[in-house]
Amino acid sequence: MGYPRMATGAALALTVFGSALGTTAASAADVTMNVGWETPLESDYGVFAGKFEELVEQYSDGTIDVKLRCCGQIASEDNAFRALQLGTVDAYIISQNNVSPHWPLMDVLVLPYTFEDTDHLRAVADGPAGDRMKEQLLADTGVHLLTFGGPSYRDFFNSVRPIETIEDMDGLKIRVPKNQVMLATFEAFGAEPVPLAWSETPTALQTGTIDGGDNGTNVIQEMKFYEFAPYLTVLDHFAGFSPLFVSDAFMKRLTDEQAEAVRRAAREAGDADMDYKIGKIEETRDWLVKEGGMQITRPDRAPFIEAARKVQEDFAEERGEAFAELLETIRQAAP
């Protein structure tokens, strides 16, 4: 499957979601909202942001002009959350693992095999566990989590060998975000995790500094990692969301009507993004094999799940009562 190439995020979102909604000219807007993310404009994050742009401008009657800032233009994922707290960035889509250094409770979503399946993911995002996280995040950090966005599963890729069993992970140098849960998980799997910022990852893969890594299936395609790492492994070990965060400073600039327009747009864009991504995961994996030339394996997950369960319990004990309670709430949300 190819990706649509459109001139703007709004046009991209219109193509992907089949929407016929229009937008109001920027000159009519009273407030400008800069929405950032770190992947390309045509990426899944770009689709999500484009849909949000379209709906905000519609529901605010053009009084909010959303500007899409892809590719790390206004911040990197590593520093975006702090910028949101300072109010120097209006809104940003941040991988949940890059929020954890600023708000450790987010790691409950990063834990390996936290979710049983996609229905479980939906139940958490739309239920009491998700509401609790939004409320606590705002209270602790002053940052609004407007929507969890669509789910993704991080697929593993490497340049050395196909992964048929957990023993095949032994000794592989794997790029891992600077997140303690993810580091511990790959250590438990037998690999040698190498913490690297996202901006350093493509070069490290091309030069052989690392053997591989894991990313959302769509990101492997969008960043063309298949050109340097031909082995794709489906473990569904990390499953998560594409959260959209907004600074409190920005929200305080809005009227009550504008704030409700932003919240409504986020809810609806998040729901559309979830439906879109759920339907696309296997299609993208198929593209990586047929068009990208990757060799795909789906090893027995039982040994990986066993190793992951110990990581879950270790972090629940280490992080304290609030973390353990939230983890249990998420487990109980399984349909």
Briefly note the CATH topology name of the largest domain: D-Maltodextrin-Binding Protein, domain 2
Gyration radius (Cα, Å) is 19 Å
Helix content: 40-55%
The average pLDDT value, as a whole number, equals 90
Biggest sheet: strands side by side, in what order? 7-6-8-5-9-11
Write the layout of secondary structure elements.
Layout (H helix, E strand, L loop, with lengths): L8 H9 L13 E6 L7 H16 L4 E6 L7 H10 L4 E3 L13 H4 L7 H9 L1 H14 L1 E5 L4 E7 L14 E4 L3 H9 L3 E4 L5 H7 L4 E5 H6 L8 E10 L3 E4 H4 L4 H35 L4 E3 L4 H18 L1 H12 L3
Parallel strand pairs: 1-2, 1-3, 6-7, 6-8, 9-11
Antiparallel strand pairs: 3-10, 4-10, 5-8, 5-9
Helix pairs in contact: 1-2, 2-11, 5-6, 7-12, 12-13
Task: Write up this protein.
By secondary structure, this protein is of the alpha/beta class. The chain folds into 2 domains: 9-151 and 240-280, 3-Layer(aba) Sandwich (D-Maltodextrin-Binding Protein, domain 2), CATH 3.40.190; 152-239 and 283-332, D-Maltodextrin-Binding Protein, domain 2 (3-Layer(aba) Sandwich). Helix content is 46%, strand content 17%. The chain has helices spanning 9-17, 44-59, 77-86, 107-110, 118-126, 128-141, 180-188, 201-207, 217-222, 248-251, 256-290, 302-319, 321-332; strands spanning 31-36, 64-69, 91-93, 143-147, 152-158, 173-176, 192-195, 212-216, 231-240, 244-247, 295-297. A 6-stranded mixed β-sheet has the order 7-6-8-5-9-11. Helix 2 (44-59) runs antiparallel to helix 11. The two termini are 32 Å apart. 50% of the residues are buried.
